[in-house]
Amino acid sequence: MRHGSVRLAAVAAISIALLAACSGSGATNAPAESQAPAESAAPSAAALKVALVLPGPASDKGFNQSAYEALAELESKFGAETAYTESVAPNEFETAYRDYAGKGFNVIIGQGFEFGDIAAKVAPDYPDVKFLVTNNNALSGPNAEGLQPKSQDAAYLAGVVAGMATKSGKVGGIAGMQFPVIVAQMEAYKLGVLSVRPDAQVTLTYLGTFDDVAKAKETTQAMIDSGIDVIYHIADAAGVGVIQAADAGKILVIGWGKDQSELAPNAVVTSQIVDQKEMIVEAIGRIVNGQFAGEPQFFGLDTPVLGLAPIGAVDTDTAAKIQAKVDEVEAAILSGTTEVPFIPEPSN
Amino acid sequence: MDDLITIFWSSAFIAAAIRFSIPIMLAGIGEAISERGGVINIGLEGMMLAGAFGAVVGSDVTGNAWLGLVFGIGAAVLITLPHGFISINLGGDQIVSGVSLNLVALGLTTFLFRQMFGITDQPQVEGFEPLEIPVLSDLPVLGPAVFSQSILFFIAVGLGLVFWAVLFRTRPGLRWRAAGDDPAALDSVGIPVSRTRWGALLLCAALAGMAGAAISLGQLFTFIENMTGGAGYVALALVIVARWNPLWAIVVAVAFGAAEAIAVRIQAGGITLIPYQLSLMLPYVLTLVVYALAARSGHAPRALGKPFVK
User: Fold this and answer.
1) Residue of A nearest to B278 (CA)
2) A132: phi then psi, degrees, rounded to nearest 5
């Protein structure tokens, strides 16, 4: 018993060290050489150092991964030096920000609305560092900027596809959690369905998780059993389960994030593109060219950030018909004739 | 009301309940044996995750789901060795060691999977497809629900029966129960407690590895970080409700699976009566209720979680 506590401490220490080694190895957050802080207002390409802070795992097949994939492009396109930290908890946001700012990074990107407050707080302390927060419609300042894709516009188009493609008149939507930006897309999807199929029955479900693939799969199966024949998902990694179950159940599914047709070519009718990568590359491009805006930037269907993947998994006649309708609705949204509302609360 | 009946008394619902139950059934049977032997495994979740990971790697390398299952069992056993050494040989705290196991398993599987497949790739491997047992699967309602499951379901039920018999009808089973109830008595008749406990623990690890493989190879045919999603903790609760009895573990696992299936189906069936947060809570509320009802009958192995030092 005497040695019990010593052993216990040793065990704990070893486990924590192991864990730290494992979770830290993916990140490259130790800069190779120390760099003098950028002195010019617009950093030259050689001195561009971009850090990305992710709230979830970089491999989530969705939201976080698409931002992570921007880093490789920043390296090749702008010769940037990049680093990232993943699965950062909200109470560590500020530490991560100050860490990177102190290490001479001149652009720091927070992936997700929730980084806005911290960016606004930290930005004045580091006037030479640019702070970008994605999916944020409010952040502004001399060195801070929110980047907001109008995802609900693309979700509405996804709804149009579902409404055109359904035979039973019953369609579903499965999302991870009830975050405002996600609810807004689910509700816009529903409106899109009803715009082409007013009598359709739309069932929207929230899993309460983004990574429980088994639950996503069972939820999809339950929807199929109730007669639903087109399902839309915003569930990142869990969405893989939605697509698998839809494929097995021989119904149609709408992917999210990037074109997911390769996962199940016979089931994925289209995917809602929300390309965080394009958005980040655009913003960094403006910084490199000295065109930093300092106020929220919005990305609509006319940018490569948003859109729908080509229609597939149906016969060519149907695909052409759906595509024509999508083009028509897209034009109406871009011209302002159709305005898709942002509904942050579930309607039901 | 008709809606409710069609949702809950249907092949599809019973099939979903059984699919949910397979991993927790396997893990629960293993944990029942280990706890009977006096070792509690908070690290059950980590063992399952290691099993899920090992199974996908094994199946990817060999192209064979059965060999994948063997790899999964091996991975779970390997990651359990330090826990066994600390809690059995060193007499360390089983809870601390079990929590460490969970943390290490999550970090290690994430790290290794990314090393092997990168961040953006998602391998699809050979898995266990649902069987179609001739004749039986044509029976009304129960046929498609019970006899069109993956083979792992039948293996799980078989193992539950076998280990119930071993535990309560054979000499090794008696030793396991003695190691958990009165290790001093076992020691006094000259049987080493540590060896007995090691046996129970490794058996549990093997079953937890199968449980992990049941998720990765039985349902998804791929590995996703943290894919066990808390099933290990559900299995820990299941063992208590099942009174440390492998036979009851089968029944309770199906009941827990049914609760999960209800939660999913209430929402997806378009029943908006119940807010989704409440329907997601259902399995846990049910666990608490059943636990409250079962808490008085029987008792935990007396030396559960207690190191045995001569």
Assistant:
1) A208
2) -110, 135
Across chain A, which has 348 residues, the per-10-residue mean pLDDT values are 46 48 40 39 64 90 88 94 92 93 94 91 94 92 94 96 96 91 94 96 90 87 92 91 94 93 94 93 94 93 94 94 96 94 85
CB contact under 8 A, A211 and B229: yes
Residue A157, min C-alpha distance to chain B (Å)? 22
Partner A, chain B 151-190, Cβ-Cβ below 8 Å? none
Q: Name the residue range of residue B44's domain.
A: 21-232
Interchain contact, B264 vs A219, CB within 8 Å: yes
Q: Which of A50-54, B12-16, B212-216 has the lowest mean pLDDT?
A: B12-16
pLDDT of residue B241: 86
Q: What is the pLDDT of residue B147?
A: 83
Please report where in the chains the tokens 């099933």 appear, as a residue. B231
Question: Domain limits of chain A?
Answer: 40-149+277-299, 151-274+315-335
CB nearest B261 (choices: A16, A218, A220): A218
- A25, A209, A217 ranked by CB distance to B111: nearest: A25
For residue B84, the chain A residues in CB contact (below 8 A) are none
To the nearest whole angstrom, how far is the Cα of A331 from the nearest Cα of chain B? 33
Architecture, CATH, for domain A40-149+277-299: 3-Layer(aba) Sandwich (3.40)
Which of A270, A238, A237 shows the shortest CA–CA distance to A253? A270
Q: Is A11 in Cβ contact with B92 (below 8 Å)?
A: yes
Residue A156 phi, psi (nearest 5): -60, -45
CATH topology of domain A151-274+315-335: Rossmann fold (3.40.50)
Rounded to two decimals, the pTM is 0.81
pLDDT at site A24: 39
A120 and A132 in contact (C-beta within 8 Å)? no
A211 with B103: Cβ contact below 8 A: no
| pLDDT(B232) > 60 | yes
Q: Is residue B199 included in any domain, yes or no?
A: yes
What is the β-pairing status of strands A306-308 and A268-274? antiparallel
Three-state secondary-structure class, residue B31: helix
Say if B134 falls within a structural domain. Answer: yes
**Within the 40-69 window of chain A, which residues sit less than 8 Å (CB to CB) from chain B?**
57-59, 61, 65, 68-69
How many domains in chain B? 1
Q: Which of A58, A206, A241 sits opposite B220 (nearest CB)?
A: A241
Across the interface, which of B7, B219, B225 has its CB nearest the CB of A214? B219
Residue-level pLDDT at A209: 83
* DSSP code, position A311: P
DSSP string, A325-336: HHHHHHHHHHHT
Q: Which residues of A touch B265 (CB under 8 A)?
A: 222
Listed range (A32-36, A284-288, B79-83, B256-260) with the worst mean pLDDT? A32-36
Closest listed residue to residue B220, CA positions, set A177, A215, A235 = A215
How many Cβ atoms are within 10 Å of B5's Cβ, its own excluded? Answer: 9
Place of tokens 């939201």: A63
Q: Does A221 touch chain B (CB under 8 A)?
A: yes
Contact criterion met (CB < 8 Å) for A226 and B276: no
